[in-house]
Write a structure and sequence with these properties.
It is a single chain. The chain has ten helices and ten strands. The chain is of the alpha+beta class. The protein has a single domain, classed as 2-Layer Sandwich (Ribosomal Protein S5, domain 2). Strands 1, 2, 3, 4, 5, 6, 7, 8, 9 and 10 form a ten-stranded mixed β-sheet that branches. A hairpin with a 6-residue loop joins strand 8 and strand 9. The longest helix is centred in the middle third of the chain and has 16 residues. It is globular and about 55 Å long. The structure holds 4-diphosphocytidyl-2-C-methyl-D-erythritol 2-phosphate and adenosine-5'-diphosphate. The site of adenosine-5'-diphosphate (ADP) has 20 residues, from helix 1 and helix 2.
């Protein structure tokens, strides 16, 4: 947890917004509001975006960057405005964002940014909401936001908001992205997407003390959105085929990023040096704890 006091100097600290990957993802149903019920396992990566906050006393929420999404759809601004309902009238902020995560990449970049805004401004504006309340606010912004506030690698159900911590191995991963944005809404609306029966939380996952291997999760089958994305986006299919010469790659979330667990960081750097043209990539370590984990109680 970042221990921080509300001082103009310290508020310029860099606040991390790490990526997540989905180590398995099953679609188990569809709710009446159109959202799909999932069973998935989230792990964080030690790679992501970075935010800084200039706290002001003018009550305004502003941004100091432009990555193409409008002010109205900007998840950072929306998160700040949601929290502002609980803050003093004069609380204001200018947010800056260093964007490393590919947008529409299945790595939860926008959701992670929004979660970091909620966590940071809750402290910097002295709002004092609990972690559960922040997660509830976050869910209004996106299904992926709660896990970043929960702060632990997790088995997730519902739309991703029913979370229980799991203790996973934390290998190095190579992550590749085809440099295209995949729309989550478009993938979930594909007519070939069918729900499968609920999977019982696998026994190894229930024992919190036990370290769950990535192979154990992969043995539960591929991400069920993967065949749909592969069929619609040949670039994603190509990256998965290319990476399979080195092991068993998987797609994260609704794509288009794909990842491969590694034996070592060096192995990832060697593969990365030869990555397919036009793809983006990085090597990062799996993390079971979010760097801003809010310890309560
Ligand atoms: C698929 C996952 C898996 O972690 O990750 P990403 O690929 O986005 O990273 C998430 O469930 C995505 O969460 P998030 O990206 O926050 O999605 P949202 O903005 O809430 O939803 C975008 C749209 O996708 C559809 N959607 C999303 C989540 C879900 N469980 N069922 C859905 O049907 C809905 O049409 C929704 O309007
Ligand atoms: N701060 C933000 N960072 C990234 N994307 C954002 C942000 N605010 C709004 N968006 C919008 O959300 C979409 C999905 O973003 P992202 O979270 O990166 O992908 P995914 O949901 O696939 O992991 C982007 O294409 C963009 O239009």
């Amino acid at each position: 947890m970042v221990a921080i006091v509300n001082s103009p100097t310290l508020s310029r600290l860099v606040w991390p917004a790490p990526a997540k990957i989905n180590l398995m993802l099953h679609v188990v149903g569809k709710r009446s509001d159109g959202y799909h019920e999932l069973q998935t396992v989230f792990q964080f990566l030690d790679y992501g975006d970075e935010l800084t906050f200039d706290i002001t006393q003018d009550g305004e929420v502003r941004r100091n960057y432009d990555f193409g999404f409008s002010v109205e759809s900007d998840l950072c601004l929306r998160a700040a405005l949601l929290l502002k309902q609980f803050a003093a009238d004069d609380c204001g902020v200018i947010i800056d964002l260093l964007k490393r995560l590919p947008m529409g990449g299945g790595l939860g970049g926008g959701s992670s940014d929004a979660a970091t805004v909620l966590i940071a401004l809750n402290q910097l504006w002295n709002v004092g909401l609990t972690r559960d309340k922040l997660a509830e606010l976050g869910l209004q912004l996106g299904a992926d936001v709660p896990v970043f506030i929960y702060g632990r690698a997790a088995w997730a159900e519902g739309v991703g908001e029913q979370l229980s911590a799991i203790n996973l191995r934390q290998p190095w991963y190579l992550v590749l992205n085809p440099n295209i944005s995949v729309s989550t809404a478009q993938i979930f609306s594909n007519k070939h997407l069918t729900a499968t029966p609920h999977m019982k939380k696998i026994r190894a996952l229930e024992k919190d003390a036990e370290i769950v291997s990535i192979d154990a999760l992969f043995s539960q089958g591929v991400n069920q959105l993967e065949p749909i994305v592969r069929a619609e986006y040949p670039e994603v299919n190509y990256l998965l085929e290319w990476l399979s010469q080195y092991g068993s790659p998987r797609m994260s979330g609704s794509g288009g990023s794909v990842f491969l667990p590694l034996d070592s960081q060096q192995q990832g750097l060697d593969i990365l040096a030869n990555k397919p043209r036009n793809s983006l990539g990085f090597v990062a370590k799996g993390m079971n704890f979010h760097p801003l984990l809010i310890e309560e109680g």
